[in-house]
Amino acid sequence: MPPQKAAPEPTPAARRSKITPERAQEFYTAVLDILRESGYEALTMEGVAARTRCGKSTLYRQWGSKPELVVAALHGTRQALLPHIDTGTLAGDLREAARAIGAGSGQETPLMHALSHAALQSPELLCALREALIAPAASAIDAMVRRAVERGEIPADAPAAEFVSAQLLGVMRARPLLEGKYADERYLTRFVESAILPPLGLGASATRPLEPRAVRPSG
Which helix (H) or strand (E) holds 131? Predict the structure, then answer.
């Protein structure tokens, strides 16, 4: 009797059941909320299942493991931290970027802190973290700097130019560790004006909108 062949391993497509995009977003939102509240170690498939009122087996069939679910949540909820900004000047662009990043720091900073250590142990998770939270914002800031070079605002070989995105995104993460406070809009705007613009050769008052002058009554 010929030996029986082993049954083929189920493919990922066969393992997954059909989940609507709306339901998947509920799972992703729950994952990110738990990460922000309690960190990566406290996140469990059981906790996500309880929060979303589904069977734990549904999550395992669809994503297989906690890291896979977190990666899917990062990709599935990816949103640009920075809107499209083009004020016509680098100083104006960076001030607007500071306001936008500061407005979102209460959501993004806890998430990055929750995932940073785990991401260093998982190349796939690190890649997802960079693609979802870091790279889009860094690319947007780098584009602002490139436009400034093309306009002649700053020289192409300005030594400080390559560090602008690292400074602005790095301080967003660093301030909670150093001072126990989020890098809000006011803080980041002051940081741009004091630490980023001067090394680029742009004064803190560069292209600052003029305050409307009070009109004195005649007579």
Answer: none
